Predict the structure.
Amino acid sequence: MNNGVMNWWNNRSDEYYGGIHGQLEKLKKDPTWAFPSVIWEMIRKNFPDLRGRRVLVPSSGDNFAVFGFHLLGAEVTSCDIAERQLTNAKKIADAHGWRIEFIRQDSMELDRIGDGEYDLVYTSNGCHVWIPDLPKMYANFHRVLKPGGRYIMFETHPFIRPFDDSGIEIIIDKAYEDTGPFVSNVKTGEIAEFAWRIMDIYNAMQNAGLKVTHMEEFHPEKGDYDDWFYGSTEEAEADEYKKLDWKQNLWAALPQWIGFSAKKESRKMNELRQAYEQKLSEAIANPPRIHNERGAGRKRVATKEIAARVLELRGQGLSQAKITVIAAEEFNIKIGRTTVGEIIRGNYKLPDE
Ligand SMILES: C[S@@+](CC[C@H](N)C(=O)[O-])C[C@H]1O[C@@H](n2cnc3c(N)ncnc32)[C@H](O)[C@@H]1O
């Protein structure tokens, strides 16, 4: 259990939730507003109807996604390491009569969540930066999903992480490869943050059996719940969203977000797929030889079976050329037209004669 991170979020939760209430009205009018449009498209494609679907949201934070899924008809479980975050979210849910399950859980443990229970596990931006052990977290997500269930997520794009984004100018702060931990000593104790790369996220997911089927790298869009370059929607509107244009704001040339959609694959399925892929690449590397009776070391290769078929086809009125093609297809052997002619004329000597 990471007490530093937990305490840090517990201590700032009230302030965090203080800014959320105004946005709830928008969410109630349109619950899909809880998701960037690109991510909502990913969800909708896999779950055209969320009613009755079981959704788990680990590291739920502001619980926007949790409320969104609930309002769209899903049965939602919200997990977070910080009790205070859950208490604040539950207050909102209770005030609206929203039936949502809240469980305090570290995403690297999830021991109070049963196996194979969920159709969808969803995490939103700001989850991965607090997780020192991605394989452990993804192993849990894999475990709690039903067979064929899905993990969908979006995050701050790893390309943003090497930069000092405190100003307009683009300044590199650290190497892309420097993933952390970046330790800070906030009053409550040590907290560590991580700057995972695309490969850290992708490989950990794949190795856990969460097979990535789709990926997106994207920018904030007008009307999305996070205006990114602006402090508020009002500010963005007053500026006519000019900062979304990279020619006016160089930061916009980089993708701000990354999203993944992955399907739970059983370990057995994973092994079978890998074995199959291995066999397939061997077969492609060594294609079966189609024997050709022509050329050096020519042998008589037409068996009794082939000869009988040639005569049968001839009986149907087919030309020698056509018979040659059909014999090649049916027996995977190239019989010369001369041989076909010999068989038809009764001059062909079978190998066993
Ligand atoms: C920035 S929020 C991310 C969720 C949401 N997108 C948001 O912006 O509120 C980060 C949340 O992750 C939680 N968290 C950090 N480490 C965690 C862990 N190991 N397990 C579960 N939750 C964790 C924090 O308590 C916090 O509520």
